[in-house]
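Researcher: Next entry in the queue.
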Amino acid sequence: MSRTVLITGATDGLGRALAGRAHRDGWAVLAHGRNAERLAALASELEGVRTFRADLASLAAVAALADEVGGAVERLDVLVNNAGIGFTEPGGGVRMESADGHELRFAVNYLAGYALTRHLLGLLRASAHLPRPEASPPAVAAPLCSRVVNVASAGQAPIDFADVMLTRGYDGTRAYAQSKLAQIMFMLDLAAEQDAGEVTANALHPGTYMPTKMVTAAGIAPVTPLDHGVEATWRLIADPALDGVSGRYFNGTRESRPHGQALDPDDRRALRELSERLTGA
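Model: Structure for this entry, 281 residues:
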């Protein structure tokens, strides 16, 4: 049985490239997307890839996605929380709300990944105790533990817990940046609570302004080639050298220091309590 990876936002950009890399390396790929036509195109391109459609702007849809995945597979070795929206589109940077009434970027970029991870943790833990599949190529050792990888960003902004949903003076860039910091804060909490021999949790900034839809929509000239971001993320997914390495933030392949708020246990507790209340996960 192949190692299995679930990649959210797998129909475009980094997520699609990661799905291709995993497929080439012999992994069983579970590809999430919001658009049925793009999912069908991905499935036709990568034979055997299983697709899952869900709108991450709805927490009910996130829970349903987790149920669907859990009912479809016997093991889940890696969850990559990659799906997200940028600082301009949708809405041209105007404040929008999710189906649950939360600020849209915080909801899609952070709350959805938080809830999905919480729903799938049992499966991830159990999968760490299943027989280890052969790696592809066979000469490369397969990782021993299950992994959660949060695709975050070097663009991080502190969370104002008095106005998390940014109802005053909204700015799309700030909304995006605080959602990315929230991803890192959650990763640190998750790493602290899990046995690193079962599940590790790490986050990364895969590259600066890679040529993705998010970047082009903002009218920004790409800087980092997409394949650099793929390699940096794949390292966290599959490199056996990172077995047991958890609670780290990487800028590309280099371990880095996140925004100071991520290292504040009181702020992480405040975010954790808020996340539990908003998601029920």
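Model: The chain is about 40% helix and 15% strand.
Researcher: Noted, moving on.
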